[in-house]
Amino acid sequence: MSDERRVTSDRERMMPAISMWQPWATFVCLGWKTIETRTHERLKSLKGKRIVIHATQKVDESAFMNMYYPKSLSMLDAINLTGFVNMNRGRLLCTATVAAARWAPNVQFDEHEEWNKKAMCDVAGKFCLFLEDIEPLRERVPFKGRQGIFYVPETGTAGS
Predict the structure, then answer these.
(1) Domain-by-domain residue ranges, the chain?
(2) How far is 135 from 153, CA to CA, in rounded Å?
(3) CA 11 to CA 27: how far, in whole Å?
(4) What is the pLDDT of residues 127-149, one digit of tens each?
(5) Which residue(s) pair with 135 in the sheet?
(6) Among 48, 79, 47, residue whose Cα is nearest residue 64
(7) How many angstroms separate the CA atoms of 110 and 2, rounded?
(8) What span, in angstroms and rounded, lies between the C-alpha atoms of 139 and 94?
(9) Over the Cα atoms of the chain, what is R_g?
(10) pLDDT tens readout for residues 9-63
(11) Distance CA 18, CA 101 (A)
């Protein structure tokens, strides 16, 4: 097989991935957060693609105090969630399809509050990835993430 063909076939076996701080990545995995926001549009090429969500080592403790955090969790559920977040730092958590990728208006708009709930934050003036068909991975594979878009072997996402 020529080198050019090998590179093409290797690329075809890779999936695009993005890193998110914990617990935000877990919130996506659980289906609580279906809009990911950024202050840039460097992820717009992901529209229409199936991607992998990678949880970073870093934990944003303020996320547990977020106004959109589920208030109905029992104390035991909250403790278990914290344990899950800590156990799954630096791992591939789930796959999702990016159904849309666009800027949210920087002013009040009809769907503003609905988008805020799905993003678990204020979306005004932010670039939004709308995630659908979220599937947790059966095995959460340790992986060193990166900023921006990076690629992971499809074999690392088998069983999603």
Answers:
(1) 20-143
(2) 17
(3) 29
(4) 999 999 999 999 999 999 999 99
(5) 95
(6) 79
(7) 54
(8) 9
(9) 16
(10) 555 689 999 999 999 999 999 999 999 999 999 999 999 999 999 999 999 998 9
(11) 14
